[in-house]
Design a protein that fits this description.
heterotetramer; A: 406 residues; alpha/beta; 2 domains; 17 strands; B: 4-stranded mixed sheet; 44% helix; binds pyridoxal-5'-phosphate
């Protein structure tokens, strides 16, 4: 695997940022797009555009086939049992809202508990909060330990006989911890509790196998997986998609509509109301192909080395304080600096073309626990190199200079 | 591929004048099928006797030439067949429409097979496959007497 | 205004469909895209890509500004009073679900009535049906007359003191009727009833003025307005957006998140949860510019003439039966043929490169009323010409030949 | 534009050692401000006497150098001003940060204006404008004694 060949597929790196090469370390926020994905959008609009599923003319047939091809690719890529277990959404946030809303409607009642963790992104908390308001359920938080991990044990401690569903992140977008989700799912299932996995950060970097994990629901963001914005994936076991009520109503999700009654379409159409993000779904197929071509093992090996290099480099830098130290970690590394606020770090790094993120990363619960309102976050993608990390490090040192620290 | 192959004379004939388009009064099995794409629907009625033979079959519904002809020809060919034979014919037809070049079953006569082969042109029109198969899926459903409405979006 | 120059901006027409020129008469389903829109997506991904609003680095700032520029353009284009009245959604269907859900949560109770019309698209009926199930409200249907119109009078007849909201289409996607929505809104407001307008079919073709209309909610589909798939607009009066609860929960829509309580962001962020369809929103600005450059008056004049030509041509064709005859009509013309099912018409026309739609067009209530399960529908866009209509007509005649009808 | 213009010495000084960072016990007006983007927050306390003069002012909160320096310098300059003067200064500062090259008011001394002009570099960093203005919006809110939490996402 030749990283410079891979990086060349990303046209964004041909541009200068304030006269510097772009060092993009914000992939956990959103990943850059390879040329193949970008071209697919372009070609679809210029040569093949039509709405899917609704008309019988040539363009509509082509578009429908392309759209459904992506469903099959995703099914294969995440090893789902059935292609109808793949629902396209506008993003992972919508996927989680869909589950919280429909599961909540049908199965949650006053006093029931939803168990999430202190690591969760707001998108795996706020939708449950809505149910706390409307249905008077309770939300419990499994504790994060000082290494930034949530262990099987901390989940076990919070399960009660009122726990009706568990929602956990696969890979924390702040601490970088990879959670033992397979064990957690096993434990939950032994008590008859379904599990929703927030796979936003794991999907671009880890091997995904729905049948092996046996999770009930898995949410993925297309744009973090080198895909277009405006598309996400909800994986859900067929039994759930058949069982739960629809989420949004509109064209394409119905079977028969009468003045007094409405019946709904079969899977997966039942959950795909209205005109979907056709072009984006079709182009997302190229993201899958891009990842498949490199191979997830190669990706994991390469990124593992880069992550270790990053952690080592930052640990050696005395002015940097890593905020977590998970044993099993993905490419998300958050830190603070004594005397320089994360926002100032980000601005100073940006001057050198180094793009990182500063803030609470949509994880205020975790930041409250950490006792700091904001952190600086470095996150890596398949196009990053050790040189990027060296540049990061030297730009961090510039912060000290500007703030005249030591 | 051209339209002549899709709209063969026999399809146009059965499309315009569908046979067995009625409701059997004393049916003992039936099922409804629905194509949510176009709103077309079909209702298949069967009279299966104690020997598991199709004593009578009919359908109600409206739709395009392809779907009406398909239901019409299907009901014609299926009458007087045994249940296990019907299942074989249905599978054979569905596979032919999907991918196979030919029909494999030894139940139908060559003449009868020729009639079904008229639908092979539909393969080139993916959006129309559903029109050709709706009544066949619904027949299966009627035989299994499942309460569920057949839905061509399923596959 | 030179139509051939305009048509040249749409690259799709450089392609042959089964060796024929494309005659695209399915714009009510989804419109083709001008090169400017397509290029904008391409350039954004290749040169400027980043997530909006969350990071402080250069690319994020650029993306955020571009994204917010579209909001301002839309505000101007539809003459909304405040830019925060523009909410980006994934489509019109989501916009209508958003309103039905949040308005329903707060204001609808058992026995209340929602008044819609027999012309409504499923996306302005199914979301209300959900409330019929969950809240035991009733849905009333204002009647369509035999010309395919819904009059002020037929709305008036169905308003009772239980009517809590009215949902109506601006331009029917089957009969082409343009409804007297300003009068209907005036009537509704005189009784204190808010009005949601389904503007999917009107937005690409009619002058939009939210302040003049004074509607409470207006839903628009980006992809029907020559824009990318995966983006829609919800216009809502500020007082409603401030008053109603949020719809989806996640990143970006919160103010402060604690374990026990959550407060929501100000407008419009409150309704934009998660990573939005960034590239699509940004490119949608080019759709607005495209329409502005031609000028809505020019568009209306040109299309009016083309619509009249189409209606006249089809009326002269004895084998065609128009299914509606509205006095004030937009570019949607549905018809049937004695002896040829709409699906067959569409397939035969397609062979000549003429793309139309056949089916119930997501309006089963209307088709039930008409007593036919399906119609054939011609719908025009700014790129269509009289030659297209002539080709349509001669392909229609081919149906007769194939079906051997005199 | 370079970082030296953004992080001028006076900003770094006030950022590191903010003045008036405490809670006034006998305040009669206060307001909270919040930047949802980064989670930073500020709480401004005022003591307005019967002559509508700011007798004392302070703030609590944490944030980046820009926001801390802005709150620190603001509280320094605003003390002992009359309410109407404060409003003029606030507007003047906000306009300068947004678009104007200069401060227009005749209330502050040239020395004081120089301090505020240190923030003009923020104009080049759109995402940081909110950091520089949060405490000022919150001051306005405190004076109006509105209960609402100020939110920099508003505009
Ligand atoms: C009148 C009308 N309303 C609503 C819709 C739904 O819009 P979308 O599919 O873009 O969400 C459509 C288009 O399909 C329409 O024509
Ligand atoms: C862990 C995690 N969950 C959920 C999300 C939300 O994903 P999206 O914004 O694509 O809906 C993100 C990204 O912002 C994330 O990092």
């Amino acid at each position: 695997m030749n990283i410079s060949d891979i990086k060349k597929q990303f046209p964004i790196f041909n541009n200068k940022i304030k006269n510097n090469d772009l060092v993009y370390l914000d992939s956990a926020n959103s990943a850059q797009k390879p040329q193949g994905v970008i071209n697919r959008v372009y070609d679809f609009y210029t040569k093949e555009f039509s709405n899917v599923g609704r008309s019988v003319h040539y363009l509509a047939v082509t578009a429908t086939n392309l759209y459904e091809n992506t469903r099959s690719s995703v099914q294969k890529y995440i090893n789902a049992k059935d292609r109808n277990e793949i629902v396209f959404t506008k993003g992972a946030t919508e996927a989680m809202n869909l589950i919280a809303n429909t599961f909540g409607q049908k199965y949650l009642n006053e006093g029931d508990e939803v168990l999430i963790t202190e690591l969760e992104h707001h998108s795996n908390y706020v939708p449950w909060h809505f149910l706390r308001k409307s249905k008077k359920i309770n939300i419990e938080f499994a504790e994060v330990n000082e290494d930034g991990e949530v262990t099987l044990d901390s989940i076990k401690k919070k399960i009660t006989n009122k726990t009706k569903i568990i929602g956990i992140t696969h890979l924390s977008n702040v601490t970088g911890a990879i959670l033992p989700i397979k064990e957690i799912i096993g434990l939950a299932h032994s008590k008859g509790i379904p599990v929703l996995i927030d796979g936003c950060q794991s999907a671009p970097h880890l091997k995904l196998d729905m049948q092996d994990l046996d999770c009930d629901f898995y949410a993925i963001s297309g744009h973090k997986m080198y895909g277009p914005t405006g598309v996400g994936i909800l994986y859900a076991k067929k039994k759930w998609l058949e069982d739960l009520p629809p989420y949004q109503g509109g064209g394409g999700m119905i079977k028969e509509v009468k003045k007094q009654a409405i019946s709904y379409a079969d899977l997966p159409n039942k959950y795909e109301a209205g005109t979907m993000a056709t072009a984006q779904v079709i182009a997302f197929n190229e993201s899958i192909k891009f990842l498949e071509k490199i191979g997830i093992e190669n990706i994991q090996n390469y990124e593992k080395e880069l992550i270790n290099y990053t952690v080592d480099t930052l640990k050696k830098n005395n002015s940097v304080k890593l905020i977590a130290n998970p044993k099993n970690r993905g490419g998300v590394i958050s830190f603070t600096m004594e005397g320089v606020h994360p926002h100032d770090i980000a601005t100073i790094l940006d001057e050198d073309g180094v793009a990182i993120r500063a803030g609470h990363h949509c994880c205020q619960i975790l930041h409250e626990k950490l006792g700091i309102p904001a952190t600086a976050r470095v996150s890596i993608g398949i196009y990053n190199t050790k040189e990027d990390i060296d540049q990061l490090n030297s730009s961090i040192n510039k912060c000290n200079k500007i703030f005249d620290l030591k | 591929m051209n339209l002549k192959e899709l709209y063969q004379e026999i399809i146009l004939d059965h499309g315009k004048n569908p046979r067995n388009l009625r409701k059997i009064d004393n049916h003992n099995k039936d099922a409804k099928g629905h194509n949510p794409l176009c709103g077309d629907s079909v209702h298949v009625y069967l009279k299966l006797n104690e020997n598991k033979k199709i004593e009578d079959i009919s359908f109600e519904g409206g739709g395009c030439a392809i779907s009406m002809a398909s239901a019409s020809i299907m009901t014609d060919l299926i009458k007087d067949k045994e249940e296990f034979e019907v299942k074989e014919i249905v599978n054979d037809f569905l596979e032919m429409i999907k991918e196979k070049d030919d029909l494999k079953n030894n139940i139908l006569s060559d003449d009868e097979k020729t009639k079904l082969m008229c639908f092979s042109g539909v393969k080139q029109y993916p959006m129309r496959v559903k029109c050709a198969t709706l009544s066949w899926h619904t027949l299966t459903s009627a035989i299994n007497n499942s309460q569920e409405i057949v839905n061509t979006e399923k596959n």
